[in-house]
Amino acid sequence: MIDRGTVRSIIPIVVAMACGLALPTAAAAQDEAPPRGPRPTVSRSAPPSPNATVNLINLLVKQGVLDEAQAAALVKQADEEAYVARQAAREAATKAEGAKTTADTALEATSPKGTKRVTYVPEVVKKQIREDLRREVMAQAKTEGWAAPGKFPEWVSRIRFMGDLRVRYEGDFFPKGNDPYTAVNYNAINTGSPYNTSNTGTGAVLWPTYNVDQDRDRARLRARLGMEADLFDGFTAGLRIATGDTNAPVSFNQTLGGSGGNFSKYAIWLDRAFINYRPWDDLSFYAGRFDNPFFHPTDLVYHRDLGFDGIAAKARYEIAPGITPFFVAGVFPLYNTDFNVGNGIDYSTGTVGKFPSHDKWMVGAQTGSDFRMTPEIDLKLGVAYYDFMNVRGQLSSPCFVYTSSDLCDTDLTRPSFAQKGNTYMALRNIVPVYVNNVLGPQYQYFGLASAFRDVVLSGRLDFGHFHPVHVVLDGEYVQNVAWDRADIAAKVNANPIWASGAVAPCPSGQSGCNQVYEGGNVGWLMRMTVGYKQLKEFGDWNFHVGYKYLESDAVIDAFADSDFGLGGTNLKGYFVGANLALGQNVWASARWMSANQVAGAPYAVDIIQVDLNARF
């Protein structure tokens, strides 16, 4: 018999059935089979049934917990609910089978026979799949000649364009007292027809001279456009074109209103054209026409924009933390004789033939080191040696000159370009010819009286304690070790009618006096700059102040700064300037330069320059 405690534990189950709630899983599982034969009945005398639920209810009837009517109602309700559950299960199974069939059909459509399915793909396999797809698509695009909209060809990504533009106002102001008679423009003579020195009897004012007493105002323009292209395996190539009044090496300035005026168009010159090979970050080779490869913190020896023709190599290597030695060397042609140089007469043999070539070269080498003394202090020092070969003028063999087109055998030793300041000598040993006791024409060219082998010390000290404001000290010293005072003085005295910038002038501009050579062979420059090293944003600024001293024959005047003293050597004086960023890549600048002669006839000029600059 079942005690009342057991009955009480079963009552909730029966009540749940009576209220339409689901029975425990085990009981429900036993009722899943469809009913067979007559439905079970409930009675006190009923025999045991194969249905556990019916047996449980019969036991409750026998115990008096339920009467027969209640038990029959419960059995009926349980039987009906079990039937409904079985029907729902059959419908769900049918729908699931249909969904499986649909999924299998879709899978078969997307994955034909032989396709393997994996639930996990390693990252390396994914990467390989992407690379294979990329190559396949790129090959198809190349074959069919199509690309995505806005997509540029591959070569475009290897080319970089850059340029700058400067608009300048320049005022040149000459004080009283400059001597116009000794400012001989040897460049005008040497690049044109030779000058007839027999005209000097009528006055030295007939010589071509530089302006030294008339103030001038000029608007000037400089524009440059360059391109660099990556080639392969460390090779790059570069080109740049630029403006300029002439093809002079030291200035890209185009005077507005010049070149004929009346809004005439201006010339464009090829300024850079080179190939660079850089096998490692710290080793570079250059060939062609390129930027100055040497460390030159100032314009004392070379103008800042001077380009170098030839070949050069640059190397650097950090031997210890903060210590990086460097080395630069190169060979540079300064002048190459015309292949079909003119005919001349050898008066010793009476034969006519081509003149020999007279090529000019510069060989240079520099070594030094960067010293990162602290994170805020950077020091760079260098020492260089520049040997200018065949640049000194040579006296010709005796030659007869009847017209300005006649040639002598050392005419090619004259400079192909010059500014002013170097000491000059007459090149032609002209045989005097008299007609009716009157001396015939004396057409003359002029060459450099000194040889040039320069030793240059260069340095830069950068204090960055107040970054982004820096204090930078730049300095250079040069000495021409090939200079010979006695030799130059002898050449000057051999042609006393020709005064040089470093020769004491004749009294009152007279010619033919016993002139004294006062030139020298050294030069130095010091400059301090305070402010931002780079002008990137509006309000960035810097200013500088410095002093320059450059004797007549310390360097070749053709390559020196073209602004200070209006260019050349035999100059000393101070300069100040400032720069202010007006925005990204646009800035304004102003500079004042006051220059005087070092030796010789009085000469002075003050220059102001106000610039608007842009780069891109």
TrEMBL record:
Residues 1-29 form the signal peptide. Coiled coil: none annotated. The keyword Signal applies. Keywords: Signal. It comes from the Bacteria. Pfam families: Porin_5. Residues 29-50 are annotated as: Disordered. This is Porin.
